[in-house]
Design a protein that fits this description.
Mean pLDDT: 86
CATH architecture of the largest domain: Orthogonal Bundle
Helix content: 40-55%
Radius of gyration: 35 Å
Number of domains: 4
CATH superfamily of the largest domain: Porin chaperone SurA, peptide-binding domain
Largest sheet: 4 strands, antiparallel
Length: about 625
């Protein structure tokens, strides 16, 4: 079975992209693994392997940030339950540890060359369709990784993905299961409906009922708590006109820019791994045998397709594409840069095995002119100065706002203007007051109760504000007169809905027991008859379709089944099931589609069962 899993999982590597990795990492805080210190206390042990408190703390923080990002700026982080985040993060780390242990026990693996190939082919690491070492470093720095840490994380993600895809690929379904599913999926039903609208005009509500409802639900009719804020705003963009760039600095930046340009080399290789099947001597002998065949004139690409054990490049004749320095294993890189175009190296030993390397091409860097880069470099140098000025002034604003008893003093010191918001409640308002950080600060004890200035609040990377309470409006009971019309409208709808439901229920009972004869019209409404309706029929309310396909088959041709339901608008619907039509045998294409769907579902169930089995057998200690 495991071999079958491995065979089915090989395509996963080529499909892995950085977005998936980031999503997995963000959801469970996996990157915390690489930043935990050796002195951290344990949060849990999984079959003897530790999960540190540092890992757990960082995973919780990562989950919190990811949830806030996913839920948007209007989400209140205070609503997040710390215990829930803690438990979810710990569960994710334990599950991850179990899956990595399972992958190791089942001998899942792939070559380092395949990992290199995955990195080289990841679009997020490319510029103009080619791998860029600078771009690679930039992206992983933003994620908080060194090269080694990123490779370790990617290795683990690919192992888990290989295990998951392998289990899913091993799932299968029988012909009988496919046929049974097809019969249900393709089944159609003949039915009819009666729809009775809630008669709003006939429903009457007295003033006493409105008053009684108002008194009973008084807490629902309160004006919202509101605040009015004074604030001062600091914009990063305002500093651009205050800084200048020297010509000497521009020239230095230009030289650095073109100095970073490096040639790209297009390599191809044949890899023979040292593993449990081939020892060091055998692998070297194999690569030397291939070297001899090359010397006799055989094609490098053809031999790579036949012998190379790098699954990412062997199918392409060993072609690794263009890359600069700092990408490959040091021994591989040295050999590659010693070659001339179309030359093949002697056997090279790397951490991954024995290679024969061929240089397919060299691409010299294109050096742009100073004039073409001047505007870009000017903006970058200005941005550096502005960034520092913004940081310094933000710190000055923080100190001044903390020491001042109002916003006038910091506004004067920094030449800013005190502005005032419109009233808004805890749900926020418009513009500035729609920002969750501002709302939280406005209703914090420091600002709301103590009357202090807030700390600087970052609205976005370009804007910081400090707020202060100007006015606090407490909730007040709304007078009956202001809410009577909305109460009356709701009570009228409730009465009308209940009346039509009672009347409709009597009809359904009478039709079922035969006391009311089935007729073309019932209570003044005509049956709407539909035939051969599918489960996904368009033009029919999904709620009605769902109820229809849950109904039991009629007992006979003249003995329909009945059910009823109330729609969101208060209408009462009577559903009469007249017959169930069995489908024709599925076509070959339909069977293939159903088989893929069922196999995918079974694969997900198998993976869930596998995880449950790992958990049931594991020794897990949580501290």
């Amino acid at each position: 079975m495991l071999q079958n899993i491995r065979d089915n999982s090989q395509g996963w590597i080529a499909k892995t992209i950085i977005g998936v990795i980031v999503a997995l990492m963000a959801l469970t805080g996996f990157d915390a693994i690489f930043r935990a210190t050796s002195t951290s206390q344990d949060a849990a042990k999984v079959n003897g392997e530790e999960i540190t408190t540092n890992e757990l703390s960082q995973a919780v923080d990562m989950q919190r940030r990811q949830l806030i990002q996913q839920l948007g700026k209007d989400f209140d982080p205070a609503l997040l339950d710390d215990k829930m985040l803690h438990d979810a993060a710990l569960k994710g780390l334990v599950d991850r540890k179990l899956l990595l242990q399972g992958a190791a026990d089942s001998k899942f693996a792939f070559s380092e060359a395949a990992l290199d190939q995955q990195i080289l082919q990841t679009p997020e690491f490319q510029v103009d369709g080619k791998f860029s070492a600078d771009r690679f470093d930039q992206v992983i720095r933003q994620l908080g990784f060194s090269r080694l840490q990123f490779r370790q994380m990617l290795t683990q993600e690919m192992l888990i993905g290989q295990l998951r895809a392998g289990l899913a690929g091993s799932a299968f379904v029988t012909d009988a299961q496919v046929d049974a599913f097809a019969r249900l999926e393709k089944q159609t039903r003949d039915f009819a409906t009666l729809t009775f609208k809630a008669d709003i005009a006939a429903a009457k509500v007295t003033d006493d009922e409105v008053k009684a409802h108002y008194d009973e639900h008084a807490k629902e009719f309160m004006s919202p708590e509101q605040v009015v804020l004074d604030y001062i705003e600091l914009k990063k963009s305002s500093f651009f006109d205050q800084v200048a760039v020297k010509d000497a600095d521009l020239q230095a930046a230009y030289q650095k820019e073109i100095g970073n340009l490096a040639e790209q080399r297009r390599a191809a290789h044949i890899l023979i791994e040292v593993n449990d099947k081939l020892n060091e001597a055998q692998a070297k002998a194999k690569v030397e045998e291939i070297q001899q065949r090359l010397a006799k004139g055989e094609d490098f690409a053809a031999l790579a397709k036949e012998f190379s054990q790098d699954p990412g490049s062997s199918s392409k004749g060993g072609d690794l594409g263009y890359a600069g320095k700092g990408v490959y294993d040091p021994a591989f890189e040295k050999a590659l840069y010693d070659l001339k175009k179309d030359q093949v190296s002697v056997p090279v030993r790397s951490d991954y095995g024995w290679h024969l390397i061929k240089l397919l091409g060299v691409e010299a860097p294109s050096v742009p002119s100073f004039a073409s880069l001047k505007d870009k470099l000017t903006h970058e140098l200005k941005s550096q100065q502005v960034e520092q000025r913004f940081v310094d002034v933000t710190k000055q604003l923080e100190d001044s706002a903390f020491e001042a008893s109002d916003l006038v003093q910091p506004a004067q010191e920094l030449k800013l203007k005190v502005q005032t918001t419109a009233p808004f409640g805890r749900e926020g308002g418009e513009g500035l007051t729609s920002n969750r950080a501002v709302i939280q600060a406005a209703f914090s004890p420091e600002v709301l109760e103590e009357g202090s200035n807030s700390a600087p609040l970052e609205l976005d990377p370009e804007t910081v504000v400090v707020v202060r309470m100007k006015e606090h409006r407490q909730p007040e009971q709304l007078p009956l007169e202001s809410v009577a019309s909305s109460i009356r409208a709701q009570l009228i709808k409730n009465h009308a809905t209940e009346a039509v439901k009672t009347k409709g229920a009597e009809l359904v009972t009478g039709l079922r027991d035969g006391k009311i004869a089935l007729a073309a019209k019932q209570n003044g409404q005509s049956w709407k008859v539909l035939e051969a309706v599918t489960r996904s029929q368009e033009g029919i309310d999904p709620v009605v379709l769902q109820a229809l396909f849950r109904m039991p088959k009629p007992l006979g041709k003249d003995k329909p089944s009945y059910t009823s339901l109330t729609l969101a608008d208060g209408s009462f619907v009577v559903v009469r099931l007249n017959g169930v039509n069995e489908a024709a045998a599925p076509t070959a294409d339909e069977k293939a589609q159903y088989r893929r769907f069922l196999a995918s579902r079974a694969g997900q169930q198998d993976f869930a069962a596998y995880r449950a089995q790992l958990q049931s057998k594991a020794k897990i200690t949580r501290y």
